[in-house]
Amino acid sequence: MSSDKKSFVLRIDAQTFAALEKWAADDFRSVNGQLEWLIDKALKDAGRKKDSSQKKKEEKED
């Protein structure tokens, strides 16, 4: 993740937050860290963000 992070407000219901909080604790992350991980993974899985291994491979090809 880059160091120029943006802040925004997210409103979710209490039950969803509790589940996210438990998942984050299980993975030794903060809730914020867990959300960043989930969003990053979803973007990569959808082909909307290149992962670092893809970037390195493309840089070598140039």
Automatic annotation (TrEMBL):
InterPro entries: Arc_rbn_hlx_hlx, Ribbon_hlx_hlx
Protein name: Arc family DNA binding domain-containing protein
